[in-house]
What does this fold into?
Amino acid sequence: MENLDDFLKETKFCDFSDKSIQNLAEEIAKNCRNDRDFAVNAFYWVRDNILYRVGLWRRTASQTLEEKEGTCTNKANLLVALLRWKKIPAGYGVMKVKGQDYMGIVVIPMLKSNIAKTSTHIFVCINISGKWISIDPSADKQLSDSIGYFNEPAQLVDWDGDGDAMEKINPDHIIKNNFPIASIDEIMQKKPRNAKGVILRVGNLYIKFLRDVKPRIQSIKELELLFKNWLKKNYFFYFLMFKITYFLKKLNETVS
It folds into this structure.
């Protein structure tokens, strides 16, 4: 049996005593009748006002709020901070997934090999009326509207405050799923393995491309070609650096 007090504590990364977190929580709470209303409104605020990105998860909740962008980990952490400020027990779900597969077919071949074979996906667990509910605010509406029609895990997640609301991740791509967990500070302190440098920058430019261009595609090959042309035209330096990095990686794999 979990000790609910552990799911109300502040941690290094879940810094809900920060004034910016408190101000946002107070603003959200203005039109809420009860804790369930607050939880639903906080879910939607984080889902759509913090744009999804990859990498760079070593951020406190207040830093995520300031940057207005975050990974699944960052977005979950910010939502937990808001809930804990309101004295609503909240924690995390830690899902081990097949990194190259779980995000769906939107991961084009030129980027897929740079993703770890095993990744961690973080979501939120909230205790309402004595039961744990799992909710996932990862994909913002802008991104979902762009790619949800062809990529099932990115379809928009809605939540009415009653029952689980999770991304449509293929069960075959889930290795392990642990929840609820009171703190993920240990996970957030870890240094990134693959999510750094040119590869990370190009990965987030790809997400920008998906948001801005809103591609209507017929195949993944077509999507990859569209992105290459967009990257070359708008960010030639990163297009060139990525090609060099990709070539050197393949060369190293061949020699090894």
